[in-house]
Amino acid sequence: MNISKIMRVAAREFASTAMTKGFIIGALVVPAVMAAVIPLVMILAMSAQPPADTGTVYILDHSTEVLPVLEDRLDPEAVKGRWIERFGDAAEFAEKMMPGVGSGTAESTLEQAASNIKSPIFKLIPAGGDTDIDELKAELRNQVSANEKFADETEKLLAIVEIDIDATRKLNEEEGYGAYQAFFRPKLNDETVGEIKDGVRWSIRQKRYENADLDRTLISEINSIRARESKEITETGERKEASGIASFAIPFASMLLLLIASMTGGQYLLTTTVEEKSNRVVEVLLSAVSPIELMTGKIVGQMGVGLSLLTVYNSVGIMALIFFNRSDLVSPLTFVYFFIFFILAYFMFASLMAAIGSAVNDLREAQSLMTPVMIMMIMPYIFFMPVIRAPNSLFSTIMSMIPPISPFIMIMRVSSTDAPPTWQVLLAILINLVGVLFFLWFAAKVFRVGLLMFGKPPNLRTLIKWIRMA
Amino acid sequence: MTNAVSMSGVRKTFGRKVAVEGIDLTIPEGSMYGFIGPNGAGKTTTIRMIMSILFPDCGELSVLGKKSAVESKDQIGYLPEERGIYKKMKVGSFLKHMGRLKGLDSRGLDNRVKEWLDRVDLNEVYKKKCEELSKGMQQKVQFIASVLHDPDLIILDEPFSGLDPVNMRLLRTLIDEQHTQGKTVIFSTHVMFQAEKICDHIIMIHEGKKVLDDTLDDIRTRFDPRAIHIDPIGGEIAANIISQLPCVSHLHPVESAIEVILNEGFDTQDAMSAILQAQPLNRIEIKKPTLEDVFIEIVTGGEKSEDAQELRATLLAGTKNEEEASS
Q1: Distance to chain A for B34, nearest Cα, Å
Q2: Contact across the interface for A452 and B54, Cβ inside 8 Å
Q3: Domain ranges in chain B?
Q4: Which residue from B minimizes the CA distance to A7?
Q5: What is the mean pLDDT of chain A?
């Protein structure tokens, strides 16, 4: 084995795969852009201001007592006040969730932003108790169909609200409270609609409290239960409680990432091997390097491709965790295991891919031999749910010990909230090392014979014959 | 003189098919050897075994004093029969990659590549992708890849196929040059007249066996057909007179001449003067054995059978195709 030749082959393999526009755009730029864009979108969404609607709202209040409260509630100044308050809360929340991002918006800019908030402006017009609701609806319909522009925006009819006579007082004890109904102009802002509805409901509720002689402030105090952050007590200390998302998403993402990274490298390895074979460049190469050197070089080169993918995606993942202030969810040891299991998984898949690539004449023929590989690929998906529900069950333990799916199952267990004992992880690594040696041995045999074999694509039986032959 | 390559009792089978059946040969350093034989004779398999791309089932093999070419790969230049290049790679990068794989230092490699490209009139393709080149150009690039690292032993499998006459001559000059520098050159061809033009030593392979291993001169002497080609003034009638001569066994017309087959025991020189005295001639020449004739004689055991005719036809077809391709 000549190491410098192997590295030379690996360097070319890496360059011809990873230094292409397609790869850089597809594999690296896309996640990088996403990582950059997602926080940006979140900030934008936070500070985005929908155009505020201005216009008239007809109130047909049969109860006659809601309207005064509602007029106070939907007063333009009052609405604006609530909007500013809400914006402040959002900024505070953002600051808490993503320290660093919110800090750009300093106090003064925050105030400035608040003062720029455009809230909807409503002009409430009470309709007389005997007004026919259909007339009001006809007016709104006329406005909509005429599609006119208003010099005075308050002329624009936004909504009609009809409040039942028993909305705030029960007519008799057996029946419940009455209802309200709102009719809106089409395509209004969600915020506008929400503001009107909330206003009506708030006002009706307010009157109900008053009529029942209840203290609203007290009730809301009673209803509000504050809780300090829940924590998990671990062997070493305590940590934030793992949310459902974390306990499912992180193991799944780890498994998926491992699968993607090892399959990408493996897939490229298959393609380049088939290409070298069908180009007949392989014989030129074999005059300079031995088959095993060639195969090792190619596997190492594509491992570089897989590793660069992993580095990019992992960085994005770490960034996301830091971003949401949950970097405690993944321990540094998990990352170490992650890279170990990647290398183990990759070597097994890559050996298979190299063997398949060397045995066939074109990619089409490779498909039939790929079936077992595909099945192996799907197995981690199938086992995801049972493993993640009970990471330390007998089933999970056994599955995490059988190569070549072992790395994928084990990484799910390792990154789950209920990590397996260290000896199991080490045992899995050991078993996989044996697996890697077996797969490499198999691939080296097939590779040596297959590379110069042209013609009929082999089936499993011929492959076994080749192994005996080599 | 030490041997660049030696093989003894080398045998290789693919499944039930025997590709090479007990070949013994020695190729001394600094010689120019031609492997000839029809398609499928076992030339490429033999060469691949010399290159340690394939390994013999049994038999001894040594290359440049080593047990196998694996240990001396960097001193061997190999141009395989199946041309192979990385289509998407630039010519310069490809050649540098091959040079590095052959153990060349990256220092000065660039200049070396450019020099070689210059020598084969391809200096403008350095930055082009391999797939943009014509087949002949690709072949020249391949040749450079096989000699770039200044190997002691150069093995060329069918180097001339697909080249036009100008490039064929260029390649021949380059091969001669390597030979003059003391390099050992082995090349194979199924087109025998090419071997006749270049080699000083011929190894003929037929059905996996070595059937001939000699210098070209010795082959010519050994396989002297004892025949003279004449073109008599007066045609058929004149030919009758010659057939009466005691040294003449019989005549038979060949293309644009009459072949005079001599009786055993008569010297060719004496026979020529006898013929000249008997009849004025436009032309007279001693028939030189072509490698084709030799090959056919060996394969058929000297009998003129239908098989021999057929074989000759296929060999001629090979030659014709090659000539047509060249013109």
Answers
A1: 20
A2: yes
A3: 3-220, 224-286
A4: B101
A5: 83
Assign residue A390 a region: left if phi > 0, alpha if psi is -120 to 50, beta otherwise? beta
Domain ranges of chain A: 3-33+242-469, 52-222
Collapsing DSSP to helix, strand or coil, A440 comes out as helix
Query: How many contiguous H segments (helices) and E segments (strands) does chain B have?
Result: 12, 13
Beta carbons of B145 and A290 less than 8 Å apart: no
User: Is beta strand A180-184 parallel, antiparallel or unpaired with respect to B257-262?
Assistant: unpaired
Asked if A285 reaches chain B (Cβ–Cβ under 8 Å), the answer is: yes
Nearest residue of B to residue A290, measured between CA atoms: B70
Q: State the pLDDT confidence band at A197, using cuts at 50, 70 and 90.
A: very high
Cβ pair B66, B4 in contact under 8 A: no
Q: Which residues of A touch B70 (CB under 8 A)?
A: 290
Distance from CA of A8 to the nearest CA of B (A): 7
Record: fold of B224-286: Alpha-Beta Plaits (3.30.70)
Annotate A335-377 with DSSP letters as a single string: HHHHHHHHHHHHHHHHHHHHHHHHH-SSHHHHHHHHHHHHHHH
pLDDT at B235: 66
Query: Are the C-beta atoms of residues B216 and B311 closer than 8 Å to each other?
Result: no
Structure tokens given for A297: 């070089």
Q: In this structure, what token pair is assigned to residue B291?
A: 């490698």
Cβ of A283 within 8 Å of Cβ of B84? The answer is yes
Residues in B lying within 8 Å of A, measured between beta carbons: 48, 51-54, 70, 73-74, 76, 78, 80, 82-89, 97-98, 100-103, 142, 145-146
Please report which helix (H) or strand (E) contains residue B23, including its range. Answer: strand B17-28
Residue partners of B40: CB distance under 8 A and separation at least 6? none
The CA radius of gyration of chain B, in Å to the nearest whole number, is 23
Out of 3.30.413.10, 1.10.1200.10, 3.40.50.300, 3.40.190.10, the CATH code matching B3-220 is 3.40.50.300
Mean pLDDT of chain B: 81
Contact A260, A352 (CB under 8 A): no
Q: Within an 8 Å CB–CB cutoff, is residue A208 touching chain B?
A: no
Query: Residue B203, exposed/middle/buried by CB under 10 A (0-12, 13-18, 19+)?
Result: buried
- A274 lies within 8 A of chain B by CB: no
Structure confidence by residue, pLDDT tens digits, A446-465: 888 888 776 666 777 777 77
Owner of token pair 């590793």 = A307
**Greater model confidence, A338 or B303:** A338
The angle subtended at Cα A10 by Cα A271 and Cα A284, nearest 5°, is: 70
Strand partners, A181: A162
Radius of gyration of chain A (CA): 33
Cα separation, B72 vs B49, whole angstroms: 13
* φ, ψ (nearest 5 deg) of residue A327: -65, -10
Interface contact B84-A9, CB threshold 8 A? no
Residue type, B290: T
Residue A435 has pLDDT above 90, yes or no: yes
User: How confident is the model at residue B323, as a pLDDT?
Assistant: 47
Which letter, b or e, does each residue of B79-91 get, where b requires 16 or more Cβ atoms within 10 Å of its Cβ?
bbbebbbbeebbb
Amino acid letter for position A117? I
Question: In 3D, which of A316, A247, A358, A248 has the Cα closest to residue A28?
Answer: A316
